Amino acid sequence: MNAFVDPELCIGCTQCAGLCPAVFRMEGVLAVAEPGPIPPEEVPQAVTAVQSCPVSAIRIEE
């Protein structure tokens, strides 16, 4: 599973980086997802971050 943040939708609320810092971080005023597969132990937190994004800017793909 890989995470992606759409920079056109991201409003920089920092929620994803706070919920799952192993997968998401802030780069300037926008969130970005770390490249590569999500570590298995981080999947639950990454899913919570996706669900918590107020503008649905994050997606997880197999």
From TrEMBL:
The keyword Iron appears for this protein: yes
Q: Which residues form the 4Fe-4S ferredoxin-type domain?
A: 1-29
Q: Name one Pfam family in it.
A: Fer4_13
Q: Its domain of life?
A: Bacteria
Question: What InterPro entries does the record point to?
Answer: 3Fe4S_ferredoxin, 4Fe4S_Fe-S-bd, 4Fe4S_Fe_S_CS, Fe-S_cluster_ET
Q: Which UniProt keywords apply?
A: Electron transport, Iron, Iron-sulfur, Metal-binding, Transport
For this protein, the record's PANTHER family field holds: FERREDOXIN (PTHR36923:SF3)
What functional role does this protein have? Ferredoxins are iron-sulfur proteins that transfer electrons in a wide variety of metabolic reactions.
Q: What is this protein called?
A: Ferredoxin
